[in-house]
Amino acid sequence: MTEVHDDETAHHYEVTVDGVHAGLAHYRLAGDGRVFDHTEIDPAFEGKGIGSVLARGALDDVIARGIPFAATCPFITSFLERHPEYQAKVDASIL
To answer: Please, which of 14, 40, 68, 79 could form a disulfide with 33 given CB 3.0 to 4.6 Å?
Structure first.
């Protein structure tokens, strides 16, 4: 089972696969919003779509909670370019 959760203390979303840490998407706080600035996937999980699961889970969470967001991380930026339904919700004013 793949799960994504927000670790607000560490300022990142973590993705786990069957309880094993598989990666994270770090964000920095920007006022009331979040700017995703770094994503990493453990090499053992690369090429399996885990990064997309992580990006989707993190973005779905901030959108559901009404948290403004933007991205400087190349991975999240690329994900946003491929998914206009998310890109339309980016708040570039918090960059």
So the answer is: 68
- Domain count of the chain? 1
Q: What is the CATH number of the domain that holds 40?
A: 3.40.630.30
Domain range for residue 50?
Answer: 2-94
Measured CA to CA in angstroms, residue 30 lies from 10, 37, 59, 69, 78 at distances of 15, 11, 16, 9, 21
pLDDT reported for residue 41? 98
pLDDT recorded at residue 23: 98
What's the number of CA atoms in the CB half-sphere (13 Å) around residue 54? 27
Q: Which amino acid is at 82?
A: R
Res 80: pLDDT:
97
Contact yes or no for 2/52 (Cβ under 8 A): no
Residue 38 and residue 31 in contact, taking contact as beta carbons nearer than 8 Å: no
Longest distance between any two alpha carbons in the chain, whole Å: 37
